[in-house]
């Protein structure tokens, strides 16, 4: 088991957001986490990553309890979060963004990693010298995922990678996610509101509502339904 979350409860200041949330993700699996805005999806991945203290619950990564561990420790073990909002170093070029992450995390074989990044995201290769804030939203999202991939993840948590993007760009990003999973054997926890793309990309789906996990299912079972309104 790559990720094992049990009875997790947490929140912000005096407001509890998650109530007894449990989730599992196997090695090299893509799992989608669905739900409307305010369901608690981003709070859950933030808590798993170590950004929030827990009220109660247990989080195991590769069989090790990581509750209370520092984020750097989790990243070094291979747990990486790509947050929502296309977060990149806006005033730096694409290449400078990549070099900063390589420097901060002391990753070796940068040249070969860079070649793989540009194979997965060829649009970034064409924009190596372009300042990040001048990229389109989709290109910034590609760069954000590339920065996460440079950290050599075993589990890559992606928070709303399709948000606000054109359908063609979303399709390209989802294809890249599947390639990363397939060729680099990286587990993916995909936080999404776009049900269609989530079902096309993942093997299993969890659905959250108001801070609780309300259902889980295999995606091949859900694809047989005529509509997905009942998910939420």
Question: How are the elements arranged and paired?
Answer:
Blueprint: E1 3-12, E2 15-25, E3 30-34, H1 41-49, E4 56-61, E5 64-65, H2 71-77, E6 79-82, H3 94-104, H4 110-120, H5 122-125, H6 137-150, E7 155-159, H7 167-184, E8 187-192, H8 195-201, E9 204-209, E10 212-218, H9 219-222
Helix pairs in contact: 3-6, 6-7
Explain this structure to me?
It is a single chain. By secondary structure, this protein is α/β, with parallel strands linked by helices. The chain has a single domain, classed as Rossmann fold (3-Layer(aba) Sandwich). The chain contains nine helices and ten strands. A six-stranded mixed β-sheet has the order 6-7-8-3-9-10, sandwiched between helices. A four-stranded antiparallel β-sheet has the order 2-1-4-5, covered by helices on one side. A hairpin with a 2-residue loop joins strand 4 and strand 5. Helix 6 packs parallel to helix 7. It is globular and about 45 Å long. The relative contact order is 0.19. The model has no long low-confidence stretch (mean pLDDT 91).
**Based on helices, strands and strand pairing, what is the structural class?**
alpha/beta
Strand content: 25-35%
Distance between the termini: 27 Å
H and E string = EEEHEEHEHHHHEHEHEEH
For the biggest β-sheet, the strand order reads 6-7-8-3-9-10
- Principal-axis shape equals globular
CATH fold call: Rossmann fold
Task: Give a quick summary of the entry.
It is built from nine helices and ten strands. By secondary structure, the chain is α/β, with parallel strands linked by helices. It is globular.
